[in-house]
Amino acid sequence: MEINVQAQDPDSVPPIxxxxxxxxxxxxxxxxxxxxxxxxxxxxxxxxxxxHEVEVFTSYHEDGAKGRSFDETRNGTLTVHVLGNSIFPxxxxxxxxxxxxMLRQLHxxxxxxxxxxxxxxxxxxxxxLFALPVETPFRSSSDWSPRRQLEPFDVIVIDQLSTGIPxxxxxxxxxxxxxxxxxxxxxSPSSSAALSSPHDPRAGTxxxxxxxxxxxxxxxxxxxxxxxxxxxxxxLVNSEFTAQVFERTFPALRRQPxxxxxxxxxxxxxxxxxxxxxxxxxxxxxxxxxxxxNRFEGKKDLSLAVDAFAKVRAAxxxxxxxxxxxxxxxxxxxxxxxxxxNLQQLVGKLGLSQHAYSASALPDVPSPVPxxxxxxxxxxxxxxxxxxxxxxFLLNISAAQKSxxxxxxxxxxxxxxxxxxxxxxxxxxxxxxxSGLPVLxxxxxxxxxxxxxxxxxxxxxxxxxxxxxxxxxxxxxRDPVAWSEALSALLAxxxxxxxxxxxxxxxxxxxxxxxERLGEDFERACVDAAKKGWPIVxxxxxxKMCMFFxxxxxxxxxxxxxxxx
Length: 565
Prior knowledge:
- By secondary structure, this protein is an alpha/beta fold.
- The protein has helices at 35-49, 97-121, 125-130, 165-170, 189-193, 209-229, 240-249, 302-315, 334-349, 399-405, 408-411, 428-434, 447-450, 460-465, 480-491, 495-512, 515-530, 540-564; strands spanning 23-30, 53-60, 79-82, 155-159, 176-180, 234-237, 258-259, 289-293, 322-327, 354-358, 391-395, 413-418, 439-442, 473-476.
- The strands form 2 sheets. It has a 7-stranded parallel beta sheet with strand order 3-2-1-4-5-6-7. A 7-stranded parallel beta sheet has the order 10-11-9-8-12-13-14, sandwiched between helices.
């Protein structure tokens, strides 16, 4: 008897014919403000512009004009639904965050599947009275009811957490694209706390007692992450660096993820702020300034920027040069408090003047750090009639202030400093290049894929032949001396050379990191997943699930019979 082996090959099954415009759902844990959230919003908007019907589902979203969420999720650009937010908290006494996040996602997925079930069963006599009509309008992201129906989606994009992927595929019959910003087991606070200094995640975790203890209690969660990630139809990552980390972290999957870079909107950067608000006028200056935009966390290594800046100032050739470190700060987080306090102590030891100011009111909450180790934060910006401080720590900047800082002609910015090591991708260097600023970053992680370092002209002849015109910034090892030398080289550029770096940066963002490119890449991944012809019910995972529930049912029935008899 001849066995048709080819018929058992998933790749041999003809693809499904798809409509030109797909229905695409995005499922994201908490849709607040952050790099992952920005990518989800950008991808959803980009797909929508390409003609696809897109809806976003999340466990948390702040609506209203002052909500801590992106404008596109509040002004009607995207349809956002909040569901699965009524049972599980975000944490239990500040701990078990990952467990709570997984449970919240499962709640969201079950709510999603229930709404899909109501759509398919809405013709049943009793359910037709229970379910809301499909055309019932949504008034806001929180306008969700367990009686709502959901029309089927061609593909679902899920990111950050992979726990719900098998449920969406096996119970909902959905094709799933999973976007892995970075393996969760390498992102947890306990993971970073176990290490005293940044390390290359591709080389494994250095041995320590804390790391071994963490590895033991995280083992079931990490195994679940690997198993559920492998169930996705397509896996995407944000950089080649993350792809290498992914393959090392999940060796059993034997899958090579596809790189889809995040994007920035060029129209939002590189332009002068037409109307500077009165409370922000103090940021306008004609004195040269070095800019760092990062959260005040230890792993962001802001001390490198301070050390390099101090060495440039000590050389005496740039007496008016300033450094502004801007970024998010939360007084409830001990890492934020200690990082800012350590930076202030470092600036004091280096003999530089400083000022710390929060652009938004800080919550009056108990500090997790003793009073002697807390930073000094002023309730007001530096006085306009005095000399500006050498180092300014600007906390919790607004979108308007960020735009102003990234406008070289208004803020005096001459370079963007990006200090983190082994960053997964890093959106800030793209924002700097899109604004026409040269970027200085470490020779590690994602920035090595975004920043182009072809060197700077060292002579008039070299400047004339244009060999360096592709340069968008400089990449240097984590060494304050090397960074100070790089900064001196950037400061020595002529206005024409600086403008050339700015043009090269904008062109690189336009070619590789535009929203149009992001939309194309996501569309390709969604189409590839949705057109797969091999049925989900024929997969090994689905058959194992059916066998498991079958055995459990037999055991339950046998137990009931034994009790009754």
